[in-house]
Amino acid sequence: MRTYTSFLTKWCLNLPSAAESFIGWIIQPITMPSLTSRQVALFSVFAAMCIGIQLAPRPPNVEFTSLITFTMGVFFGSLPAGTFGALVMFVNGFLSPWGFAGMIMPFQMAGMFIVGVAGGVYKRYVAGERAGRLCVEAAVLGAFLTLIYDVITNSGAALLAGRALILTFFMGIAMSVVHICSNTIFFGSAFIPLLKTLQKFSSR
Fold first, then answer.
1. What is the pTM assigned to this prediction?
2. Which of 64, 115, 56 is nearest to 85 (CA)?
3. Are 150 and 176 within 8 A, CB to CB?
């Protein structure tokens, strides 16, 4: 366990520079042509941070990736954030402490891509809104998007297992409740602080 923790720590410390090179070389020309080098660096650092959090030991179905991906959508736009979310889930699919994701990985990537796109769509409604209203809206969106994500991943699990969709949803209902409730709290309480952090570092 200590060896794994040491490896993970070193890997996460080296990830920002590797992620920046990867994003700048491959992703930026395709999806982010309008971003400055400072924004690409910020994008890369948040990708590394998000991957590190995703790979850290945590309770099942309690995650911050949805919140970070959604906030990245509000700040960077739909396509960069969708790419961000899919990239995080791709890495998580291979290195997750819960094991290799296998064939469910594409469904996880698609679900998180939608979360990022939704953040980009919500971007147009953020300016000028009161903080209290933003908190409520973010919480509702967090619950809705988490439900969509769970529907996509559970549908994939049912398809791959050859199991009835209703049965799969019923078997995973407890985990979905934990997922939706935790993300509702995270979105409602942390969306504004995280967005302000992005804005602060981008303007320096």
1. 0.82
2. 115
3. yes
CA 49 – CA 68 distance, rounded (Å): 10
- Would you put residue 178 in left (φ > 0), alpha (ψ -120 to 50) or beta? alpha
Please give the backbone phi and psi of residue 7, each rounded to the nearest 5 degrees, phi first: -60, -45
**126-175 residue pLDDT tens:** 887 888 999 999 999 999 999 999 999 999 999 988 888 899 899 989 99
* CB 49 within 8 Å of CB 98: no
Contact criterion met (CB below 8 Å) for 45 and 77: no
Cα atoms found within 13 Å of the Cα of residue 43, Cβ hemisphere only: 30
Rounded Cα–Cα distance for residues 140 and 152 (Å): 19
The number of domains in the chain is: 1
* Residues of the domain holding 109: 2-55+64-203
Provide the angle, in degrees to the nearest 10, between the axes of the packed helices 131-161 and 173-203: 130
Write down the pLDDT at residue 18: 45
Q: Which residues of 134-173 are buried (b: 16+ CB within 10 A; e: fewer)?
A: bbebbbebbbebbeebbebbbebbbeeeeeeeeebbeebe
